[in-house]
Design a protein that fits this description.
534 residues, disordered N terminus, 2 domains, alpha+beta, single chain, D-Maltodextrin-Binding Protein, domain 2
């Protein structure tokens, strides 16, 4: 590079870094259209994909790393580092042909090295390493073995056919990492990530600011052959209060915010879920189904007679108006979940309404319980966190009208998680966000062999017919038959009323008018590859 070009490059880089250093709080914003700025109020715990469990981590890891495959916005599996793949006739062997031009981000230890199949062998070994204790080790539980056939062919053999396997491989846990760099940094790889993604790591001041820079050697191009990404950088701040985050957004110090918080929901949306008139000309809103079911769960092995009464469980399901709750507590954001546990947007979702609001029938069921049990004052404790207190209090007041007393107990999220997993709560609030885009992920919550704490069956629900349908569905390759099994399992859950589905969530994003192509998807992944700013 000659001196003139080097000087121009240095000046351009200095301008970008100056902007990033200030996180958008300077007057000169000549380069603002090249930097995407957002806030992560939950903070980020690690930039290592092996620990990408929460959305806050997944969002940034998605900018830094790639796996064999990925999901598009319609939940279709498409190639990423894999060029293509094939599946054996018995459904147990997956063979991936890798692209041969993909480079890891620059690092002194890599010497401009391309990704090879052996890198996936190392990355998968690492996920399964008990010393590492990755929360993603479960994603390979149905894998019997894997190997690099050669530099460009990677083979995975399953213990049994599993039709949701490609969806699991799209999770960020399965990202490829370079052995040389991981072993050099050890535990500190969490803050020194080297991947293959559209952006590369620049700087992380924990709890203050995280900066990513464009990967100029990223392998993907747009439909016109232009290199991705379009942005020059991503700047992330860590303001913990959602109300403060909203104010920063309104002042144009952030490019977008995600989700709806009690502190600003009435400011930005009306009760129909539309933008308030004062923001129509300033802000865009994007909504889409979110693979997240919010629900109340009962612990089936409880000694509490109320919990073990299907009459009471059904009465609560009938006894409150979900539509009213969504309208007034979420400003219309969400879908009534009286149709089952499988959320709208997934194959297997049912349109059958199981529990339409019916307070008269609910009162009748309570009266039947009282006559059979002699318990004239049925009372149950519902455990939740402060974030969901308003929903639980709404249900509490509605259910009082049909003769059931609900005591709402608020505890920290960490305590709720531990108590729920260990069977210490009779009645609890919970949610399930899809790990991969298959209803089997939701239905696994009620399979007998998945009892918590080892598995996700927090209710300890057990049903032989359900288990048979679940096991049969795992190896079913006919999509129509598989969806039939899913709906049958969902109907058993609803008939037994072991849970009270509240609503299926929606992804909701607010952006300024100058932000283009941010998009939205049912698993709420943040994809910045094609984002531009005017």
């Amino acid at each position: 590079m000659n001196k003139v070009n080097f000087k121009i490059e240095l000046i351009a880089l200095s301008g970008i870094l100056l902007l990033l250093n200030s996180c958008g709080n300077i007057d000169d914003r000549n380069n603002d259209h090249l930097v995407f700025r957002y806030n992560e109020h939950k903070n980020i715990s690690s930039l290592d994909p092996a620990f990408s469990k929460d959305n806050s981590d997944i969002w940034v890891v998605n900018q830094l790393f790639n796996g064999l495959v990925e999901m598009d916005e319609d939940l279709n599996i498409r190639p990423s580092i894999a060029k293509n793949w094939s599946v054996s006739n018995n459904g147990k062997v997956y063979t991936f042909n890798l692209k041969t031009n993909i480079k890891f981000h620059p690092h002194d230890l890599l010497n401009d090295r391309n990704v090879i199949a052996e890198d996936f062998t190392y990355s998968f070994d690492r996920i399964l390493d008990k010393k590492l204790a990755s929360p993603g080790s479960w994603v390979l539980e149905k894998v019997e073995g894997y190997k690099a056939v050669n530099d460009s062919v990677f083979e995975i053999k399953l213990t049994e056919p599993f039709n949701a396997f490609l969806g699991i491989l799209s999770m960020k846990y399965c990202s490829v990492v370079p052995k040389e760099v991981v072993e050099y940094y050890g535990d500190d790889f969490r803050r020194n990530p080297i991947g293959t993604g559209p952006f590369k790591f620049k700087r992380w001041e924990e709890n203050i600011k995280l900066v990513l820079r464009k990967n100029n050697e990223y392998f993907e191009k747009d439909e016109n052959g232009n290199p991705l990404p379009y942005l020059e950088a991503v700047a992330i701040t860590f303001i913990p209060e959602k109300q403060s985050e909203f104010l920063e957004f309104v002042q144009s110090n952030l490019d977008f915010i995600s989700g709806l918080d009690e502190s600003y929901k009435d400011e930005i949306l009306n009760k129909k879920g539309d933008l308030s008139s004062k923001y129509i000309d300033k802000i865009n809103i994007v909504r889409a189904p979110y693979l997240n079911t919010e629900y109340l769960g009962f612990y089936k092995e409880s000694t509490n007679t109320i919990v073990n009464s299907k009459l009471i469980r059904k009465a609560i399901n009938y006894g409150f108006d979900r539509d009213k709750m969504i309208k007034f507590l979420r400003n219309g954001i969400g879908v009534n979940a009286n149709t089952g546990f499988i959320p709208k947007g997934l194959p297997g979702y049912s349109t059958k309404v199981y529990y339409e609001y019916n307070p008269k029938l609910a009162k009748k069921l309570v009266d039947q319980y009282i006559n059979l049990s002699g318990d004239i004052n049925p009372t149950i404790k519902l455990t939740t966190t402060s974030n969901y207190l308003v929903f639980c209090e709404f249900i509490q007041k509605e259910i009082e009208k049909i003769g059931i007393n609900i005591i709402v107990d608020v505890i920290p999220a960490s305590s709720l998680k531990e108590a729920k997993a260990n069977g210490k709560l009779d009645f609890f609030r919970a949610s399930w966000v899809a790990d991969y885009p298959d209803a089997q992920n939701y239905l696994s919550l009620y399979y007998t062999n998945n009892f918590a704490p080892a598995g996700p069956n927090y209710t300890h629900f057990s049903n032989k017919n359900y288990d048979y349908l679940y096991e049969t569905s795992l190896s079913e390759t006919n999509q129509q038959k598989k969806e039939g099994y899913y709906r049958s399992m969902d109907s058993i859950i609803m008939e037994e009323s072991i849970v009270i589905p509240l609503y299926f969530d929606e992804v909701i994003r607010f952006t300024h008018k100058n932000v283009n192509n941010l998009g939205v998807n049912p698993i709420n992944i943040l994809d910045l590859r094609k984002v531009t700013k005017n």
